[in-house]
Write a structure and sequence with these properties.
By secondary structure, the chain is mainly alpha-helical. Helix content is 57%, strand content 1%. It is built from eleven helices and two strands, in the order ααααααααββααα.
Length: 270
Amino acid sequence: MRENKTRTSRANRKTGRRHPLATVGLLAIGLLFTGGGYAALSTSTANAQTDPSSQQTIAEGQKLFAANCATCHGLSAEGADGGPSLIGVGAASVDFQVGTGRMPMQRQAAQALEKPVQFTDEDIAAMAAYVASLAPGPAIPEGEVLDAKGNASVGAELFRINCAMCHNVAGAGGALTEGKFAPSLKGVSEKHIYEAMVTGPQNMPVINDMNVSPEGKRDIITYLKYIETKGNPGGYELGNFGPVPEGLFIWIFGIGGVVALTVWITARSN
């Protein structure tokens, strides 16, 4: 029996016949390489379409910029009579200004007002990628700096030192000069708060990492979100505008009520 198998094996080798499973193995290897190559190509194409730095995204952003922003900022974002240069402002500035509806402006005013957003997230990302490609600048933040899980106590101290003089200690906002104002920070997303700190929009100074570290910015965001959700344990907040409206309230209603009560008691006694 063994001699017959040996003779058959030798006969197959002499006639050039392959093992019956050889064809199946070759097909499996071919399918493996074909499928792997297709998957790699599909992944690279998808990454190119979603990658903010891809040439396709930048080209799309340039078209959107030319159609919606070039009138004020110039065709190459070099600036014009209606708006400043955007070279070097970074993707974070575009994401903040356009993502909060401040840009495009409805009209020239003391400062751009927040309004409904005019573009989709994809369009905003494309314009941000185009402006970022012109020169280095602050990138759109991501990761744990936006999780609002920092130290609220440290954030409160940093906010009082760097922000409260304009935005009020409770982030309620306040008036500035020449019709300008610091807006309320209630309801502002973590990403836009961080972007405002690193880009300095409107009249706000830039708070760079040398002044407040990324961890410190995370703490500030944590503090703002804490006071936004915890309410006011001291009673009615009166807008959180500080001692001036509170004092005015006491003068008008408190002392006014005492005077009215005194007059009423005197009138009854007479």
